[in-house]
Protein backbone atom coordinates (compact mmCIF):
# COMPACT_ATOMS: atom_id res chain seq x y z
CA UNK A 1 0.00 0.00 0.00
CA UNK A 2 2.88 2.34 -0.69
CA UNK A 3 2.31 5.67 -2.37
CA UNK A 4 3.65 6.22 -5.86
CA UNK A 5 5.08 9.47 -4.56
CA UNK A 6 8.58 9.27 -3.11
CA UNK A 7 8.40 9.30 0.69
CA UNK A 8 10.85 10.13 3.42
CA UNK A 9 9.25 7.70 5.90
CA UNK A 10 11.59 4.77 6.44
CA UNK A 11 10.56 3.46 9.82
CA UNK A 12 7.35 1.60 9.13
CA UNK A 13 9.04 -1.86 8.90
CA UNK A 14 9.47 -1.68 12.68
CA UNK A 15 5.71 -1.37 13.04
CA UNK A 16 4.99 -4.24 10.71
CA UNK A 17 7.38 -6.47 12.63
CA UNK A 18 5.24 -5.77 15.67
CA UNK A 19 2.04 -6.48 13.78
CA UNK A 20 3.39 -9.77 12.50
CA UNK A 21 4.53 -10.64 16.02
CA UNK A 22 1.04 -10.07 17.43
CA UNK A 23 -0.41 -12.18 14.60
CA UNK A 24 1.45 -15.16 16.06
CA UNK A 25 -1.10 -14.98 18.89
CA UNK A 26 -4.17 -13.31 17.35
CA UNK A 27 -5.30 -15.15 14.21
CA UNK A 28 -7.06 -13.51 11.28
CA UNK A 29 -7.46 -10.02 12.76
CA UNK A 30 -4.93 -8.00 10.77
CA UNK A 31 -7.15 -4.93 10.41
CA UNK A 32 -7.92 -4.78 14.13
CA UNK A 33 -4.25 -5.20 15.03
CA UNK A 34 -3.29 -2.41 12.63
CA UNK A 35 -5.93 -0.11 14.14
CA UNK A 36 -4.47 -0.83 17.58
CA UNK A 37 -1.00 0.19 16.40
CA UNK A 38 -2.37 3.33 14.75
CA UNK A 39 -3.72 4.28 18.17
CA UNK A 40 -0.44 3.35 19.84
CA UNK A 41 1.64 5.44 17.41
CA UNK A 42 -0.65 8.46 17.73
CA UNK A 43 -0.74 8.35 21.52
CA UNK A 44 -4.39 7.32 21.64
CA UNK A 45 -6.32 4.54 23.35
CA UNK A 46 -8.65 1.81 22.16
CA UNK A 47 -12.04 0.53 23.30
CA UNK A 48 -12.94 -3.00 22.23
CA UNK A 49 -16.58 -3.99 22.49
CA UNK A 50 -17.35 -7.64 21.92
CA UNK A 51 -18.57 -10.83 23.50
CA UNK A 52 -16.22 -12.72 25.86
CA UNK A 53 -13.67 -15.14 24.46
CA UNK A 54 -12.85 -13.63 21.07
CA UNK A 55 -9.27 -12.62 21.90
CA UNK A 56 -9.52 -9.08 23.29
CA UNK A 57 -7.25 -9.80 26.25
CA UNK A 58 -4.76 -11.79 24.18
CA UNK A 59 -4.39 -8.91 21.74
CA UNK A 60 -3.33 -6.37 24.35
CA UNK A 61 -1.05 -8.89 26.11
CA UNK A 62 0.65 -9.64 22.78
CA UNK A 63 1.15 -5.92 22.11
CA UNK A 64 2.76 -5.47 25.52
CA UNK A 65 5.06 -8.45 25.08
CA UNK A 66 6.06 -7.28 21.59
CA UNK A 67 7.27 -4.04 23.18
CA UNK A 68 8.83 -5.59 26.26
CA UNK A 69 6.63 -3.09 28.08
CA UNK A 70 5.41 -3.08 31.65
CA UNK A 71 1.92 -4.57 31.49
CA UNK A 72 -0.86 -4.27 34.04
CA UNK A 73 -4.38 -5.60 34.01
CA UNK A 74 -7.29 -3.97 35.83
CA UNK A 75 -10.29 -6.24 36.23
CA UNK A 76 -13.22 -3.88 36.61
CA UNK A 77 -15.90 -5.09 39.01
CA UNK A 78 -18.86 -3.38 40.70
CA UNK A 79 -16.95 -3.02 43.98
CA UNK A 80 -13.73 -1.60 42.48
CA UNK A 81 -12.71 1.75 43.99
CA UNK A 82 -10.97 4.67 42.24
CA UNK A 83 -7.94 4.18 44.51
CA UNK A 84 -7.70 0.58 43.27
CA UNK A 85 -6.97 2.07 39.86
CA UNK A 86 -4.84 5.15 40.57
CA UNK A 87 -3.06 4.07 43.75
CA UNK A 88 -3.23 5.03 47.40
CA UNK A 89 -1.05 6.57 50.10
CA UNK A 90 -0.23 4.14 52.92
CA UNK A 91 0.99 5.20 56.34
CA UNK A 92 4.31 3.65 57.36
CA UNK A 93 4.45 3.33 61.14
CA UNK A 94 8.25 2.97 61.14
CA UNK A 95 8.96 6.18 59.27
CA UNK A 96 5.77 7.91 60.46
CA UNK A 97 5.18 9.05 56.89
CA UNK A 98 2.74 8.34 54.11
CA UNK A 99 4.14 6.49 51.09
CA UNK A 100 2.38 6.33 47.76
CA UNK A 101 1.63 2.85 46.48
CA UNK A 102 1.12 3.09 42.69
CA UNK A 103 -2.01 1.62 41.18
CA UNK A 104 -2.10 -0.58 38.08
CA UNK A 105 -2.78 2.43 35.86
CA UNK A 106 0.90 3.31 36.23
CA UNK A 107 2.26 1.01 33.54
CA UNK A 108 3.16 1.31 29.87
CA UNK A 109 0.38 -0.91 28.57
CA UNK A 110 -2.81 -1.25 30.61
CA UNK A 111 -5.68 -3.63 29.99
CA UNK A 112 -8.87 -2.17 31.43
CA UNK A 113 -10.88 -5.37 31.31
CA UNK A 114 -14.69 -5.21 31.25
CA UNK A 115 -14.59 -1.49 31.97
CA UNK A 116 -18.37 -1.19 31.87
CA UNK A 117 -18.87 -3.56 34.80
CA UNK A 118 -17.77 -0.98 37.34
CA UNK A 119 -19.52 2.10 38.68
CA UNK A 120 -19.34 5.50 36.94
CA UNK A 121 -17.32 6.83 39.91
CA UNK A 122 -14.53 4.33 39.28
CA UNK A 123 -14.74 4.78 35.50
CA UNK A 124 -14.10 8.47 36.08
CA UNK A 125 -10.76 7.63 37.69
CA UNK A 126 -9.48 6.94 34.18
CA UNK A 127 -10.42 10.30 32.66
CA UNK A 128 -7.30 12.21 33.66
CA UNK A 129 -5.01 9.31 32.77
CA UNK A 130 -6.49 8.87 29.29
CA UNK A 131 -6.46 12.56 28.41
CA UNK A 132 -3.44 14.02 30.21
CA UNK A 133 -1.27 11.01 30.98
CA UNK A 134 -1.32 11.72 34.70
CA UNK A 135 -3.24 10.87 37.87
CA UNK A 136 -4.02 13.05 40.86
CA UNK A 137 -4.19 11.46 44.31
CA UNK A 138 -4.15 13.15 47.70
CA UNK A 139 -3.85 16.50 45.95
CA UNK A 140 -0.65 15.55 44.11
CA UNK A 141 -0.47 15.06 40.35
CA UNK A 142 1.80 12.27 39.18
CA UNK A 143 2.88 11.92 35.57
CA UNK A 144 2.49 8.50 34.01
CA UNK A 145 5.48 6.93 32.31
CA UNK A 146 5.77 7.01 28.53
CA UNK A 147 4.67 5.40 26.37
CA UNK A 148 1.24 4.97 27.92
CA UNK A 149 -1.42 2.93 26.14
CA UNK A 150 -4.79 1.74 27.42
CA UNK A 151 -6.83 -0.89 25.68
CA UNK A 152 -10.19 -1.22 27.38
CA UNK A 153 -12.68 -3.99 26.77
CA UNK A 154 -16.39 -3.89 27.38
CA UNK A 155 -19.21 -6.34 26.98
CA UNK A 156 -22.25 -5.34 24.90
CA UNK A 157 -24.55 -3.15 26.98
CA UNK A 158 -27.34 -5.73 26.77
CA UNK A 159 -25.32 -8.04 29.04
CA UNK A 160 -26.32 -8.14 32.70
CA UNK A 161 -24.31 -6.17 35.26
CA UNK A 162 -23.02 -3.56 32.82
CA UNK A 163 -23.01 0.25 33.14
CA UNK A 164 -23.05 2.45 30.02
CA UNK A 165 -19.84 4.44 29.68
CA UNK A 166 -20.43 8.20 30.07
CA UNK A 167 -19.90 10.43 27.04
CA UNK A 168 -16.79 12.02 28.56
CA UNK A 169 -15.22 8.59 28.94
CA UNK A 170 -16.04 7.47 25.40
CA UNK A 171 -14.66 10.71 23.97
CA UNK A 172 -11.22 9.90 25.36
CA UNK A 173 -10.83 6.72 23.33
CA UNK A 174 -9.33 7.27 19.91
CA UNK A 175 -10.97 4.19 18.36
CA UNK A 176 -13.78 1.83 19.18
CA UNK A 177 -14.16 -1.38 17.20
CA UNK A 178 -15.05 -5.04 17.49
CA UNK A 179 -12.88 -8.11 16.95
CA UNK A 180 -15.62 -10.52 15.94
CA UNK A 181 -15.71 -14.28 15.73
CA UNK A 182 -13.03 -16.05 13.65
CA UNK A 183 -13.89 -18.00 10.53
CA UNK A 184 -13.90 -21.80 10.73
CA UNK A 185 -10.42 -22.02 9.22
CA UNK A 186 -9.11 -19.34 11.57
CA UNK A 187 -10.61 -21.11 14.56
CA UNK A 188 -8.96 -24.34 13.47
CA UNK A 189 -5.63 -22.50 13.30
CA UNK A 190 -6.22 -21.22 16.84
CA UNK A 191 -6.76 -24.77 18.08
CA UNK A 192 -3.61 -26.00 16.36
CA UNK A 193 -1.51 -23.20 17.88
CA UNK A 194 -2.68 -23.69 21.46
CA UNK A 195 -2.76 -27.50 21.43
CA UNK A 196 0.57 -27.91 23.23
CA UNK A 197 1.41 -24.44 24.48
CA UNK A 198 -0.14 -21.02 24.08
CA UNK A 199 1.94 -18.91 21.64
CA UNK A 200 1.79 -15.91 24.01
CA UNK A 201 4.28 -17.72 26.25
CA UNK A 202 6.90 -17.79 23.49
CA UNK A 203 6.37 -14.24 22.23
CA UNK A 204 9.52 -12.11 22.32
CA UNK A 205 9.91 -8.32 22.09
CA UNK A 206 10.64 -6.95 18.62
CA UNK A 207 10.76 -3.26 19.54
CA UNK A 208 11.98 -1.32 22.56
CA UNK A 209 10.03 1.38 24.37
CA UNK A 210 12.62 3.91 23.20
CA UNK A 211 12.06 2.81 19.60
CA UNK A 212 8.32 3.31 20.03
CA UNK A 213 8.75 6.79 21.50
CA UNK A 214 10.95 7.74 18.53
CA UNK A 215 8.30 6.44 16.13
CA UNK A 216 5.61 8.45 17.92
CA UNK A 217 7.71 11.59 17.50
CA UNK A 218 8.17 10.93 13.80
CA UNK A 219 4.44 10.42 13.36
CA UNK A 220 3.94 14.00 14.57
CA UNK A 221 6.07 15.18 11.63
CA UNK A 222 3.72 13.70 9.02
CA UNK A 223 2.32 16.58 6.97
CA UNK A 224 -1.40 17.39 7.08
CA UNK A 225 -2.56 19.81 4.38
CA UNK A 226 -5.14 22.50 5.12
CA UNK A 227 -7.61 20.84 2.74
CA UNK A 228 -7.34 17.58 4.67
CA UNK A 229 -7.87 19.45 7.95
CA UNK A 230 -10.94 21.09 6.45
CA UNK A 231 -12.22 17.68 5.37
CA UNK A 232 -11.84 16.46 8.96
CA UNK A 233 -13.74 19.49 10.23
CA UNK A 234 -16.51 18.96 7.68
CA UNK A 235 -16.94 15.34 8.76
CA UNK A 236 -17.03 16.17 12.46
CA UNK A 237 -19.34 19.14 11.92
CA UNK A 238 -21.71 16.93 9.92
CA UNK A 239 -22.18 14.74 12.99
CA UNK A 240 -23.53 17.81 14.81
CA UNK A 241 -25.98 18.61 12.02
CA UNK A 242 -27.30 15.12 11.24
CA UNK A 243 -31.03 14.74 11.87
CA UNK A 244 -30.54 11.47 13.77
CA UNK A 245 -27.92 12.86 16.17
CA UNK A 246 -28.74 14.43 19.52
CA UNK A 247 -25.10 15.17 20.46
CA UNK A 248 -22.39 15.37 17.82
CA UNK A 249 -18.66 14.76 18.02
CA UNK A 250 -16.51 17.25 19.91
CA UNK A 251 -13.39 19.14 18.74
CA UNK A 252 -11.43 16.38 20.51
CA UNK A 253 -12.72 14.09 17.75
CA UNK A 254 -11.20 16.36 15.09
CA UNK A 255 -7.82 16.25 16.84
CA UNK A 256 -8.05 12.47 17.25
CA UNK A 257 -8.92 11.93 13.59
CA UNK A 258 -6.02 14.11 12.42
CA UNK A 259 -3.50 12.33 14.66
CA UNK A 260 -4.82 8.93 13.61
CA UNK A 261 -4.47 10.00 9.98
CA UNK A 262 -0.83 10.90 10.58
CA UNK A 263 -0.13 7.50 12.12
CA UNK A 264 -1.96 5.66 9.34
CA UNK A 265 -0.07 7.57 6.64
CA UNK A 266 3.20 6.79 8.42
CA UNK A 267 2.35 3.10 8.41
CA UNK A 268 1.71 3.34 4.68
CA UNK A 269 5.25 4.70 4.21
CA UNK A 270 4.01 8.22 3.46
CA UNK A 271 5.02 11.51 5.04
CA UNK A 272 1.69 13.17 4.23
CA UNK A 273 -1.98 12.44 4.92
CA UNK A 274 -4.47 11.99 2.09
CA UNK A 275 -8.27 12.31 2.38
CA UNK A 276 -8.73 8.56 1.89
CA UNK A 277 -6.82 8.00 5.15
CA UNK A 278 -9.39 10.08 6.98
CA UNK A 279 -12.29 8.48 5.16
CA UNK A 280 -11.10 5.00 6.18
CA UNK A 281 -10.53 5.92 9.83
CA UNK A 282 -13.63 8.06 10.40
CA UNK A 283 -16.03 5.20 11.34
CA UNK A 284 -13.65 3.92 14.02
CA UNK A 285 -12.95 7.40 15.42
CA UNK A 286 -16.42 8.96 15.30
CA UNK A 287 -19.11 6.32 15.84
CA UNK A 288 -18.67 6.11 19.62
CA UNK A 289 -18.53 9.88 20.03
CA UNK A 290 -22.11 10.67 19.00
CA UNK A 291 -25.44 10.25 20.77
CA UNK A 292 -28.52 9.39 18.76
CA UNK A 293 -31.87 11.08 19.21
CA UNK A 294 -34.75 9.15 20.76
CA UNK A 295 -36.54 8.95 17.41
CA UNK A 296 -33.43 7.53 15.74
CA UNK A 297 -33.11 4.85 18.40
CA UNK A 298 -36.77 3.89 17.99
CA UNK A 299 -36.25 3.53 14.23
CA UNK A 300 -33.32 1.12 14.81
CA UNK A 301 -30.74 3.60 13.56
CA UNK A 302 -27.17 2.90 14.74
CA UNK A 303 -24.16 5.12 15.33
CA UNK A 304 -22.25 3.23 12.67
CA UNK A 305 -24.95 3.82 10.06
CA UNK A 306 -25.04 7.54 10.82
CA UNK A 307 -21.27 7.91 10.41
CA UNK A 308 -21.40 5.79 7.24
CA UNK A 309 -24.04 8.16 5.83
CA UNK A 310 -21.95 11.19 6.75
CA UNK A 311 -18.79 9.78 5.15
CA UNK A 312 -20.77 9.05 1.97
CA UNK A 313 -22.31 12.54 1.85
CA UNK A 314 -19.38 14.83 2.73
CA UNK A 315 -17.36 15.78 -0.33
CA UNK A 316 -13.82 14.39 -0.44
CA UNK A 317 -11.09 16.80 -1.61
CA UNK A 318 -9.71 15.63 -4.95
CA UNK A 319 -6.99 16.63 -7.38
CA UNK A 320 -5.12 19.79 -6.40
CA UNK A 321 -7.30 20.20 -3.31
CA UNK A 322 -5.88 17.01 -1.82
CA UNK A 323 -2.27 17.52 -2.89
CA UNK A 324 0.43 18.75 -0.61
From TrEMBL:
All copies of domain ATPase AAA-3, residue ranges: 45-175
Recorded superkingdom: Bacteria
Keywords attached to this entry: ATP-binding, Nucleotide-binding
InterPro entries on file: ATPase_AAA-3 (IPR011703), CbbQ/NirQ/NorQ/GpvN (IPR050764), ChlI/MoxR_AAA_lid (IPR041628), P-loop_NTPase (IPR027417)
SUPFAM superfamilies assigned: P-loop containing nucleoside triphosphate hydrolases
Domain ChlI/MoxR AAA lid: 238-310
GO molecular function term, any single one: ATP binding
Family affiliation: Belongs to the MoxR family.
Name of the protein this chain belongs to: MoxR-like ATPase
Organism, scientific name: Evansella caseinilytica
